[in-house]
Amino acid sequence: MSQIPLTHILFLSTALFFIGVYGLLTRRNMITMLMAIELILNSVNINFIAFNKYLYPEKLNGIFFSIFIITIAAAEAAVAIAIIINLYRSHHSVDAEDASELKY
Fold first, then answer.
1. What one-character DSSP code corresponds to residue 95?
2. Whether 83 contacts 34, CB under 8 Å
3. Rounded-to-integer distance, Cα 1 and Cα 16, Å
4. Going from the N-terminus, what domains does the chain have, and what CATH number goes with each?
5. Residue 96 has pLDDT above 90, yes or no
């Protein structure tokens, strides 16, 4: 059984990261921006697991960090979706430009 080289995994992670950054910077829909942030977090998880496997295969530090990031991402998604629903109820739009016009 052959292993996938580390450079291939890092290329995939880099591609996911920059697709996420591009999506975050170019989209105005807040749900799409949330998905872009999730792509960025998943690319970081791939890096943690890849470096853990290739540098310290007997330890599980990278996997524990990835589980922690997945937990934080789930909480972040729940809070962000609640904010997006509140924005939609008040402005009937999920556009990021409308979010800047919120007055409290």
1. B
2. no
3. 26
4. 6-99 (1.10.287.3510)
5. no
